[in-house]
Amino acid sequence: MNAKRTAKSSKPTKLFVLDTNVLMHDPTSLFRFEEHDLFVPMMTLEELDANKKGMSEVARNARQASRMLDEIVTGSEVDIEDGIDLANPSRGLASGRLFLQTEAINGLLPASLPTSRADNQIIAVALHLRQKHPKRPVILVTKDINMRIKARALGLEAQDYFNDKVLEDTDLLYTGSLELPADFWETHAQGLESWKRDGRTYYRISGPLCADLLINEFVWQEGPQPLQAWVRTHAGKTVELETLTDYSHGKNAVWGITARNREQNFALNLLMHPDIDFVTLLGQAGTGKTLLTLAAALTQTLEQKRFSEIIITRVTVPVGEDIGFLPGSEEEKMTPWMGALEDNLDVLNKPLDDGDKGNYSGDWGRAATMDLIRSRIKIKSLNFMRGRTFLNKFLIIDEAQNLTPKQMKTLITRAGPGTKVVCLGNIAQIDTPYLTEGSSGLTYVVDRFKGWPHAGHITLQRGERSRLADHAAEVL
What we know:
Elements lengths: L1 H9 L4 E4 L1 H6 L11 E4 L1 H9 L6 H18 L9 E2 L11 E4 L17 H15 L5 E4 L3 H9 L3 E3 L17 E3 L4 H4 L5 E5 L2 E7 L11 E4 L5 E9 L2 E6 L18 H11 L5 E6 L5 H15 L5 E6 L15 H5 L4 H10 L11 H17 E4 L12 E6 L6 H8 L7 E6 L15 H9 L5 E6 L6 H9 L1
Parallel strand pairs: 1-2, 1-5, 2-4, 5-6, 7-10, 13-17, 13-18, 14-15, 14-16, 16-17
Antiparallel strand pairs: 3-4, 8-9, 9-12, 10-11, 11-12
């Protein structure tokens, strides 16, 4: 084992050349390269300086990165040329060294590349370092795709910055449900216990599959004796399953809405359960995310009085060109973004039957109900969330795939006692330019919250909007 370790340590560590956009994307990237060394070119510092003004996320990150570099450099007693050890500043997260450019570097680029461009100067630094350290792997790290292509064309190794990605492949993202194999009960029959309480059936089982199950994960099985249950407790290879409330049956309808498929039934069990504080619903357009959430929110706010108010917020990222400034108060400015809310409220407040449409009392009743519903729903902008605390509120974060992990943290930490937070989104429809499916805040919270006893997640599979919408989602 020792021989292996010495062989491993004798291998030269890599030297990563950092582009500005990496530091502006994640200021803590300085401590994310473990035992490898970092090199920050002078042009990177120049660009950090040029981007530090303003209130945007990019400017904030540029200032943060500059402050971190300042702390590292001022806290070091060694000569910058020898490299600054990152073990102390990173509190043991990184063991490499940080080098800053201390000499002018010229004449390494082909004549066709203009040296006035910052990207090309950073590439020139990486080429110089490769000449200077022929035995060490010198790698340029940048989030700029064109810069990576240029570097590779010049024979340099270039990589994207992956450290903030929650998952490399979104197909591996936790779906929240699992189909049990056909032989599940045979293989897990040993020591099986079953009992009934409050109209629910409970099973305590142990076996090989139980180790991989997570708390609040849904399990199901089709067949002559279909089962839909969820994991309530988990201890080693023993789990306790509890059968679900059947929301597909009319007697359990939530604000007149029944589950149209298995996943919708799972979602309503999460949305209606008093012990679940945080719910994430993923799914393509038309799977019923907003409708189910609103139905559950209205039932628990107006009928059960569990929550005092429904708060809805979403990121205002336009799909097309921006339409400019909007008049009015915060609520009025947010209204055009809330078309989905209006559409779903129309569905939830539809007349009881067709004969009711021509009836004046029916129309008056509808209008009165709509006024009552609107008085309990508040539409808020993300911009004014910092520092707020929500007590006994049902907080719905729509289009959550457009949030960064940092924004997601800001929103979820607003929750006070008695507040339930529901995040809705479709990671295949990200409109924010700098987010990908792997680094979206929605992917981040789904991954981090799985297995927590007071959180649940479900990926809705089937579209229930119309045959046209379902076909469009498949073929377009």
